[in-house]
Amino acid sequence: MNLHEYQARALLKAAGVPVPDGDVASTPEEVERIAREMGGGVVVKAQVHTGGRGKAGGVKLAKDAAEARAVAEKILGMTIKGLTVEKVLVAPAAEITSESYVGMIVDRETQRPVLMVSPEGGVDIEDVAARTPDKIFKLTVDPRFGLMAYQAMSLAFELYDDLNQVRQAAAVMQRLYTAFVDAGASLAEINPLITDRDGTVVALDAKIAVDDNELERKPAIAALRDQSAEARSEVEAREAGLSFVKLDGNVGCCVNGAGLAMATMDLVKFYGGEPANFLDIGGSSNPEKVVTALKIIGSDPNVRCVLFNIFGGITRCDDVANGIVAARSQMSSELPLVIRLTGTNEELAVKILKDAGFSALTDMDEAVEKAVQVAMEAA
Ligand code: GDP
Ligand code: MN
């Protein structure tokens, strides 16, 4: 689950990280009022679950309240990477004298939190990693001890020469670590961490992604979910109890079991296709789940073909077949389906599908190859 910048800022602030004041608004009038109360120049920032807002025109400086309102009129309602801006953060404009990067992630290889810092802040850290990997400094944290002061200091020396700033940055890193652990985050980053006109170290942007598996035991964090800012398809899938991740390809995948779903996506790639999504309809899928799944996949305009790959164990193939038939009658588009079913009640499923005018395969390779081909021809 992603948090908005203003939410991430609040968590960092609570952990003691210096963060500028700020207030959230959803109308230009509110923005004007907040800016007037703040006085002086402000920055108006789109609150959407993506980075690169600055480049997309979603972060703008304004010299006074009137200009803040004008800027907000442009930013509110704009789309950034497919997400509509519903809210903006208004904050006093900072005067920046340097920008660096500080981030915590969970590293799969070491299975530990890793602190990453770079003096090249304010830009995409992926670009820095690609162009000048020697400008990124990493430290693996032992979760038994947390981020120790001397470790934070040694990394802070990579960012600043001034000892006072090094100390401030080290404190920011330790507090960021605390916020990261307390939120159950998989990522917590400050980009840019700036020095302002007085040389004070301040977190100007904040991004936190929370591991969904932590939400159950962290109700205060779970309450920060903003459904209006999430992809419609992902919200629907979650409500229906489906594991769904949207991807960029054109072969829709409807599979039972996470392992089979991964294997299916691999095979789609093997045959030269690109999966449009990961979707696991779960172990005991009823026909309604299949209807929802097909609706969600079908609402993606990139999808050219939907591949069903069902290995019936607890999942009964006839349930899935009934779901497909029901879903098709409710759908307006004529999206081609390639269906592969095998296992529990396979014969019954094939009969249900044949009676409804569908064909069904039992071989996985054959089905995936065909789905890729159909998608390519329709693209
Ligand atoms: P992102 O593009 O989504 O990462 O949004 P950021 O909050 O990082 O803002 C992008 C860039 O806008 C920053 O790297 C800064 O260069 C600039 N920026 C953001 N806030 C301010 C501010 O208060 N003052 C000034 N001068 N620049 C700002
Ligand atoms: Mn940023």
Oligomer: single chain
Count of structural domains:
3
CATH class wording of the largest domain: Alpha Beta
In CATH, the topology of the largest domain is named Rossmann fold
Instruction: Give the biggest beta sheet.
Output: 6 strands, antiparallel
CATH architecture of the largest domain: 3-Layer(aba) Sandwich
Number of strands: 17
Number of helices: 13
**Mean pLDDT score:** 94
Taken in chain order, the helices and strands follow as HEHEEHEEEEEHEHHEEEHHEEHEHEHEHH
- Relevant CATH superfamily of the largest domain: Succinyl-CoA synthetase domains
Inertia-based shape:
elongated
Question: Which ranges are low-confidence, i.e. pLDDT below 50, for 5 or more consecutive residues?
Answer: none
Rg for CA atoms = 25 Å
Strand proportion? 15-25%
Which structural class matches the secondary elements?
alpha+beta
- Helix share of residues? 25-40%
- Bound compounds, please? guanosine-5'-diphosphate, manganese (II) ion
Describe the structure.
This protein starts with a helix and ends with a helix. 38% of the residues lie in helices and 23% in strands. The chain contains 13 helices and 17 strands. The strands form five sheets. Strands 7, 8, 9, 10, 11 and 12 form a six-stranded antiparallel β-sheet that branches. Strands 1-6-2-3 form a four-stranded antiparallel β-sheet, covered by helices on one side. The protein has 379 residues and is of the alpha+beta class. α2 (28-38) packs antiparallel against α3 (65-75), α5 crosses α6 and α8 (232-239) runs antiparallel to α10 (287-298). It folds into three domains: 21-92, ATP-grasp fold, A domain (Dna Ligase, domain 1), CATH 3.30.1490; 96-222, D-amino Acid Aminotransferase, Chain A, domain 1 (2-Layer Sandwich); 232-378, Succinyl-CoA synthetase domains (Rossmann fold, 3-Layer(aba) Sandwich), CATH 3.40.50. Guanosine-5'-diphosphate (GDP) binds at residues 43, 45, 51-54, 59, 61, 93-94, 96, 99, 122, 191-192, 204-205.
